[in-house]
Design a protein that fits this description.
This protein is an alpha+beta fold. Helices cover 42% and strands 22% of the residues. Helix 1 packs across helix 3. The chain starts with a helix and ends with a helix.
Length: 106
């Protein structure tokens, strides 16, 4: 496995953990229909871009532990495929070893 695959999967899993806490709090505070600002779960450890989505959209995007939400321009095409597109974010699925690492870290 390349160091890049490992770094990409690890970084995205860490950001997903932060977003899961944000999503959980958003459900309690504003409900399931109101959007909250999640952090982009891309491979760039310096990225702080925000994505507005509802808790339901967030849960749907993470139906597979290999899936992450990213700003459309932040897709790492060498290790992931876009599985859903909308105006504000894409859902990407890790493939290969990066997908295995992401699943293990979920």
């Amino acid at each position: 496995m390349s160091e890049r695959e490992k770094r990409v999967a690890t970084n995205e899993a860490l950001v997903r953990d932060v977003n899961e806490r944000l999503e959980s709090r958003a459900q309690v505070i504003v409900g399931e229909d109101a959007p909250f600002a999640a952090v982009c779960e891309c491979a760039d450890p310096e990225c702080t871009d925000r994505i507005a989505l509802t808790p339901i959209e967030y849960e749907d995007a993470h139906g597979d532990e290999r899936q992450f939400i990213v700003v459309p321009a932040h897709v790492a095409e060498d290790v992931e495929d876009v599985v859903q597109r909308n105006e504000t974010f894409f859902v990407v699925r890790k493939r290969g070893l990066a997908g295995e690492i992401a699943a293990e870290l979920d």
